[in-house]
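Let us begin with a simple case.
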Amino acid sequence: MTTLLHIECSPRKQCSASLQVARLFIDRYLHHQPQTNIEIFNQRVTLLPEYATRTHNNKHAGLSGTPLTPAQQSAWNELKHLAAYLHRADLIVLSVPLWNFSIPYKLKHFIDLVSQKDILFSFDPQHGLRGLLKNKIAVGAYACGMDFSAQSATPAERFDFQKPYVAAWLEFIGISDVHELRVEKTILGEDIDRDSRLAASQQARDLADHLAATEADKTVIPASAN
């Protein structure tokens, strides 16, 4: 059975474009794959531990191979518990609004906590860094209020640190099958906002249809050769 993890990042709830498109994708996927197990990680209500001195010391102890103290091990277990959401998931959906050209601080906090050696990546001198999350699919539902087209005053190649950052992080932790849903120009008037959401919603339906069909193909049992 497929496990789908939805990481929610926006505090706007029903007004959130990223959340709207992500939920539409999930609903459509469930229509095709109703047996899917859904987990929701809402960063607005989940109390994340601070990246305190002991967490920082844990990181360097792990990199150097130094044994952890009981207190350090307890803090490390907290990080492993958070990362377990990602390890359990087969399909990861992130609804990410643009904040000051980048991602919400809650998502950055989560990424900083769980992106640790032997939790989401490994390292050795011969092979370097390797992501530990294999055979997973990620869908990023991104929303921004601006126009990032090449003709705009804020072209994506100069100002967009939202999608490229999330895409780089996903690749770093081992996820290569990554898909994008994007809602733009949400602050440029009601008509433009509505049209952008409608276009992204259709993309979400199409992507859900495709991924659900691909998952269905995996579960088909070949006919006997007898």
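The second case is a distinct protein. As before, the sequence precedes its structure tokens.
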Amino acid sequence: MPRPKISERREQAQQITSRLAQLYPEAACTLDFQNSFQLLCATVLSAQTTDARVNKVTPELFRRFPSPEAMAKAELAELEEILHPLGFFRSKAKSLQGLARGLVENFAGQVPGELSQLVTLPGVGRKTANVVLGDAFGIPGITVDTHVGRLARRWKWTRHQDPEKAEKDLQKLLPPEIWTPTCHRIIAHGRAVCRARKPLCGQCALEDICPSSEVTKN
């Protein structure tokens, strides 16, 4: 079957995003943070674990190390102790200290508001950078995490497994002003309904416009 034209895919995307906005009007970042530095650290920590677990360790982390300057001078063993419940705590501790030092040495201790600068920091890729830009700076960004990538492929918005290629496909379909909230809504829908192993197609409000709605009816 030939791939739908870009105009048809945009129309379908508009229908889906409109319904998502109705289904999840309050969808937002589920990481707890008070400033851009905290969000940057929390997003780095969220790799290969849940936001809920990250939210359990960050209060103590930021109590002890409230700024890039403080974290840059931290004992690595102390960071590892705090992050131990997350798994991969040694590599995550190194990433946090590395990005803190990068902020101090290259950005005067301030989190930069540009993607090209954010991705120069240790442990910070495009996904993390787009989270920070969207939720801390209000700069539109598409965050292709596992949920966004999975649902985008099911909706035929992209064919790519590679997050950066998928991000470019989504940018062509969605207007920038809805990039950030739409990603939060896709994540919410992916967690609640369009699950990885057993999507609840029969209970999905998008069933009539989803090209993959026959995945399962159970």
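The first helix runs from residue 6 to 23. The mean pLDDT is 95.
Keep these points in mind for the review questions at the end of the chapter.
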